[in-house]
Amino acid sequence: MGEIADMMLDGTLDFYTGEYIGRSKGFPRTIDKSLPWEQRAYNKKSGAYGGIINFCMQKGLTHSQANGIIKVYSREKFNVVIPKAKGGIGFKEKVLPLLIESANKMQENFSEFKSWFNSRKQ
User: Fold this and answer.
1) Total number of domains in the chain
2) What angle do CA 18, 10, 36 make, to 5 degrees?
3) Which of 28, 40, 74, 112 has a CA positioned 20 to 30 A from the CA of residue 19?
């Protein structure tokens, strides 16, 4: 494949217009959010945390269920226990940083997480 096609597939170039849109995200992207296939209800957070949440939501889970998946995986694979926020209090201060840290570790070996996730869905 050509270099331009590779850049469109990895998200460096807009796959619809060919414009440069920034660093690669590892998947095709577009800046034209009016296109029908760009009208998604997925999580808008960026980075590894948003990527893991989006992956789980695309598999049919809710945002809170996706957070639960991160907690279970972190406990099983990293021996990190992420506490529950009491009535939403302390989520941003205590829980979210741990979720983000775990998501960063998960993203480093995403194929292992994906295999683990798929084995649990069966």
Assistant:
1) 2
2) 60
3) 40
